[in-house]
Write the structure tokens for this entry.
Amino acid sequence: MTTTLIPILSAFAAAVVVLVLTPATMALARRVGAVDQPSARRIHDRPIPRLGGVAILIGFLVPALWFLPIEPGARGLIAGAVLIALLGIADDILGMQPAVKFAAQVACACIPVAAGLTIDHLTLPFLGAIDLGGAQYPLTVLWFVAIVNIINFTDGMDGLAAGVVAIGSTTFAIIAASLGRADAAILAAALAGACAAFLRFNFHPARTFMGDGGSMFLGFMLAGIAISGVMKSAAAIAIVLPLIVLAIPILDTSFVILKRLKHGNPVYSADKSHFHHRFLAIGWSQRRTVLAIYAWTGLMAILALAMRFVPYMDSPGDWNPGWTALLAAIAAIGLAGAVYLVYVLEILKWRSEPVVQIVRRRRAAGNEVAANKR
């Protein structure tokens, strides 16, 4: 019951709380001035309240505290997540320098690490378990801070971060439950329920944003759940599954950071080089873009679940041909989806940009002629 019914109840409870509280957070955001104004680097064209993360936080905490985990690491994870959510909320209202926010993120990450939630070993195929020794502490802090900022960077379009995290946390809940890790399954399910309910207000056209308070909280919880629910397993795929589930936001953020470094720009400088910005640049709508990224993320989640549940090995080193073929087919579908989207972003972009430029020049010329006639 602990690994099946309780996670489902947790997801339902979190969803109900978020549905009830989100309108109140919208009113609160307008009252305190936490409103995202339109600008050149923003996609929206009207002021949007950005304290939706408060509703997500409270919605998550209701079932999380009701079914309070007994493991010190899980309790440390919740404590650190609450603090990083408060940090983000303060940033949403008051603003904060990137260096200060980064230092505070590191401090928050130290809380679950100090409570014993660490990546103490890596289980790699053919190599077995590798004990990380003292390196586990800085490596775990790095993992937390990286995922926090990856999800924060992903939150750039209506419903994008909430939907991606809902898919990822649902996947982690299923995997954690299958491994008998009840605490991680409950926390992941609560996170999924909160995110799914928030989409009621955040999917395009969004009526509210989660803000940094929401995105950093979600990233922090995902990072911790990945450790406690998957990485601490002795399975050979333990290190691979979280990377597959989070492959799309990791790939997107890596691409953006490398591009900024290439051009000598600060890592935290805002631009429009994310996947979702590039989809918009070639003419895709927000809904189409978000649904495409959902589908891409979903394919990766299916691949991760297949790697966990498909019995492709009868025994170590003894591959089952039929099940291995099925797993390979699922991986091929995921790869095909990635190739298609890369084709759209890279090949189609070059084909469509000259046409777009021609249309813009013709419009400008037409406007100039009309102005001269007046």
In short: The chain has a mean pLDDT of 83. Strands lie at 35-36, 48-49, 121-124, 128-131, 313-315, 318-319. The first helix runs from residue 5 to 32.
